[in-house]
Design brief:
alpha/beta; 7-stranded parallel beta sheet; 10 helices; 7 strands; globular; SDR_fam
Length: about 350
C-alpha cells in the first residue's frame, strides 16, 4: 500500500512537472506577441470630445507612453515600440537625458514622432480635478498633466516603467530612509502609475473600434525582499492592482456593463537586469541586459495572462525558488541580500 502511494505521488509530481514544462515552452517559444494589434490609426480619436479644446485637432496616428524612458529598460522599450510602428511619448525628469534619447530615436526612426513629458514621478499627488491648487501644493497633478500634454494624441499603449525605489543607499534597512524618501519612492513606484493609468483608462475604453494596452513593469522583488522594503511593497501593490483591474474588466464585460474598446492589462515581472542605472556589467543567463529585457516584456503581450514573467530564465528561477520549503526560501533570500549588501558597502555592486 505504501509503495502504491509513493508511486501515485511520483506520477502526480511528474505529470505536474511535464505540464508546467509544456506551458513554459508554449509561453516563451510558441506564443507570438500581438503588439501589432495596438498599432492602428484613430477613426476620430478616443476620449471625451466634449471635454477637449475644439481648436485642437486630434492626431490619428498611434502613440505609446513610456515612463522612465531616459535610461535603461525604458529607453529600449521606446526603441522597440518605435520599431513596431508607434510614435512615443518619452517621460522622465531629466530634460538633457530625454532630449538625447529623443535625438537618438529620431535618427533611427525618421518616420516616427517623439514627444517629451518632463515630470518628477516621485512627487505625484493627483487631485482628480477636484482641487487643483491643493494638488499643486502637494506635488504633481497627473490628471492636469495628461490633460495639458497628451490630450491631442491618439494613445493606444501605456508602459508604466519608471521606478527604482530608494537610491541612497540602494539597499538599506527601512529605518535608514527618511519618511520623505520612503514617500517619494512609493510615489515613483506606484502613485504616479496609478494616477496616469486612471487618467488614460477612460480614453482607452472609448477608442472607437480599437483596443489599448497597459503594462506595468514589475519585479521578482514583489515576493518581499529585505533591504528593499518600499520597493518590494510597491511592486506587490502594482501586481495586485493590475491583476484586479484585469479582473474588473472581465467582470464588467460578463455583466454587459462596459462598452467600447478592449484594454489588455498586464503586470510583467522581471528579475535582475544589467545595463540599467543601478547596475552595470556583462550580461549573463540569469541577468540579461536592458535591451533583452525590453524585448522580453513586449514579447509577452497577448499571452493571455495578466501577471507574467518577461524572461524565461527568470521564470525558471522563480519557479525553482517558489518550490523550496519556506525556511529554505528565507535562507536563500537572506544570503542573496547579504551578498548584495556587502557588494554595495565595498563599492563592487555592478
Amino acid at each position: 500500500m505504501l509503495s502504491t502511494v509513493f508511486t501515485l505521488l511520483g506520477l502526480a509530481w511528474t505529470s505536474s512537472f511535464l505540464l508546467g514544462a509544456v506551458k513554459l515552452v508554449k509561453l516563451y517559444l510558441v506564443t507570438p506577441s500581438n503588439l501589432h494589434r495596438y498599432v492602428y490609426s484613430s477613426g476620430g480619436g478616443g476620449g471625451d470630445s466634449s471635454a477637449r479644446d475644439q481648436r485642437k485637432e486630434i492626431q490619428k496616428d498611434p502613440w505609446a507612453v513610456v515612463t522612465g524612458a531616459s535610461d535603461g529598460i525604458g529607453r529600449f522599450l521606446a526603441q522597440e515600440l518605435a520599431a513596431a510602428g508607434f510614435n512615443v511619448v518619452l517621460h522622465g525628469r531629466n530634460t538633457t537625458k530625454l532630449e538625447k534619447v529623443q535625438a537618438e530615436l529620431q535618427r533611427a526612426h525618421p518616420a516616427r514622432s517623439f514627444r517629451l513629458l518632463e515630470a518628477d514621478a516621485g512627487l505625484a499627488a493627483d487631485s482628480g480635478g477636484d482641487n487643483d491648487e491643493g494638488a499643486q501644493q502637494l506635488g504633481l497633478d497627473v490628471t492636469a498633466m495628461v490633460r495639458n500634454e497628451l490630450e491631442v494624441l491618439h494613445i493606444t499603449g501605456l508602459v508604466n516603467n519608471v521606478g527604482g525605489g530608494n537610491r541612497n543607499p540602494l539597499m538599506g534597512d527601512f529605518l535608514e530612509y527618511s519618511p520623505r524618501q520612503n514617500t517619494e519612492a512609493v510615489s515613483k513606484e506606484s502613485l504616479f502609475a496609478i494616477h496616469l493609468t486612471h487618467a488614460l483608462l477612460p480614453r482607452f475604453r472609448k477608442n472607437r473600434g480599437g483596443v489599448a494596452l497597459v503594462i506595468s513593469v514589475g519585479s521578482m522583488a514583489d515576493v518581499g525582499m529585505p533591504l528593499t522594503a518600499t520597493y518590494s511593497a510597491s511592486k506587490a501593490f502594482n501586481k495586485t492592482l493590475l491583476e484586479t483591474l484585469a479582473l474588473e474588466d472581465r467582470l464588467a464585460r460578463m455583466e454587459g456593463s462596459r462598452e467600447g474598446g478592449e484594454v489588455e492589462i498586464m503586470y510583467v515581472r522581471l528579475g535582475d537586469v544589467t545595463e540599467v542605472s543601478w547596475r552595470r556589467g556583462p550580461a549573463s543567463l540569469l541577468m540579461p541586459d536592458a535591451r533583452t529585457a525590453a524585448r522580453a516584456i513586449l514579447a509577452r503581450v497577448g499571452c493571455g495572462r495578466s501577471v507574467v514573467t518577461a524572461h524565461w530564465a527568470h521564470e525558471l528561477f522563480r519557479l525553482a525558488f517558489a518550490g523550496l520549503l519556506a525556511s529554505l526560501r528565507e535562507k536563500l533570500l537572506l544570503s542573496i541580500m547579504r551578498g548584495w549588501r556587502a557588494e554595495q558597502v565595498t563599492g563592487s555592486f555592478k
